[in-house]
Amino acid sequence: MTFLKLDHVTKRYGAAAALDNASLEIEAGEVHALMGENGAGKSTLIKVLAGVVRPDDCSLHIDGSKVPLEGPDDAARQGFRFIHQELNIVPHLSVAENIVMAQAYPRRFGLAVDWRRVHDKAGAALERLDVDHIDTRRKTARLSTGDQMLVKIAATLVSSDAHPARLYVMDEPTAALTGQECDKLFAVIEGLKQSGASVLFVSHRMNEVMQNCDRVTIYRDGRTIETSRIAETSRERIIEAMTGRAIRDTYPARTGTPAREMFCTVEKLRTKHVDGLEFSLKRGEILGVAGLAESGQSEVLHAFLGDEKPLSGAVTFQDKQTLPSAPSVAWKRRIAYVPRERRREGLMLRRSIVDNAVLPHLGQLGSARIFSSRRKERIHTGAIAERVRLKYSRLGQPCYQLSGGNQQKVVFSRALGKTPELLLLDEPTRGVDVGAKFDIYTLVRGLSAAGSTTIMTSSDLPELIGMCDRILVMRDHRQHAIVETDGLTPARLLQMFYE
Ligand SMILES: Nc1ncnc2c1ncn2[C@@H]1O[C@H](COP(=O)(O)OP(=O)(O)OP(=O)(O)O)[C@@H](O)[C@H]1O
Ligand SMILES: [Mg+2]
């Protein structure tokens, strides 16, 4: 039975419409996927439903009756719970405060906050996710992004007598989670569904949608294209509805790695956070780095960036006996880096697309900013934006106005400013839509054919196997193994994380 019906949802920003007469219908007790390319309007729709973005037009019916949607209180009254795309936790508060904050704090005799109950409630919510490694007393800022996401998910699971939850809205909850954490989330989602609640689920990962959702609605350019039962549709159909073109949901063919010259040799390398690194890389090779969450994958990249200092071991790299001593030196040595946390270390959100895309290239575009012509910067940025199919209205637009996936593309554009010798990619396709993923894969393959070496991490195991020549498996911050990807399966790779 239809529980929620949204119609005529329109939201304009200046001349551009983020949503253009979009609609959505959710049944009671179903897991409903909302899919669409980066910038299609998914997060905007969710913000309208949450009452945090005021639409130009919208009508909401619950159980057949029209209900108002004027602000966040209306959404809360209907029992809607939200996990927004960008982390909106309060970093200086404890885990418990962040989890319980969405509801009122439990009080003793109606006066002081009952801290014991706050921690008990938070602990119980984390337990539902089968998470026992997060101390509810810790400051949330100290947690990894994955753990912060678990805290956000837990916050929606806190029970409330005043407004029992009827709809859980999750905007890309899995983008920051590992495979195992995703499995736990899907188990929880199944439980929510059994209890009669509905879930609206946004993800760019086709497998997750095909395996865990009942129906899917597809948006393109702010409009509803179609809603179908997962059992009656296919990946190809969904991709075509999203993009309006047929795209392969696969990896570009390898051009074959010719015998190339050696690019770097690493022997017994130890830094503060990783140990036992031992491998060599040829020019044009793509090396994956994998492992359970927080096993030192990112730190391997950081060693090449110059902010993880070698403590012992030997490295021969770019015909030198040293690694870069600092990130600024790395940039001069043509080492490009796409960070994992685009909002924390990747982007200046209030600055324009051009500023974000060109800042590190000023040396290349002109000797100093004042001498570099804005025109040159714009041409340069426009060309790269086209290569990654960036969706924007003008190059001077501040980055906070871009959709999540398009922000990631801006970060990627910066790394492609000049052809790198070494490309360091930390979860490069997180939050990026299928079409753009394929474009990014093609770009990386192209750079590889031209001689750039790549080291990339990813929690998407098929992606690592599809893109890399070899995979370095990390365990407890140590190199555990290095394997060829030929014939490797995701299941076998996952097994190596544990054995
Ligand atoms: N404050 C704003 N000002 C101007 N444009 C905006 C603003 N917020 C969103 N937009 C635009 O609205 C469109 C839809 O964005 P939205 O965030 O809803 O996309 P999305 O489908 O969630 O994409 P993604 O998969 O990348 O998260 C985008 O083109 C975006 O640039
Ligand atoms: Mg979004």
UniProtKB/TrEMBL annotation:
The keyword Nucleus does not apply. PROSITE patterns: ABC_TRANSPORTER_1, ABC_TRANSPORTER_2. Signal peptide: none annotated. InterPro entries: AAA+_ATPase, ABC_carbohydrate_import_ATPase, ABC_transporter-like_ATP-bd, ABC_transporter-like_CS, P-loop_NTPase. Transmembrane segments: none annotated. Residues 4-246, 257-498 form the ABC transporter domain. Belongs to the ABC transporter superfamily. This is Sugar ABC transporter ATP-binding protein. It comes from Flavimaribacter sediminis.
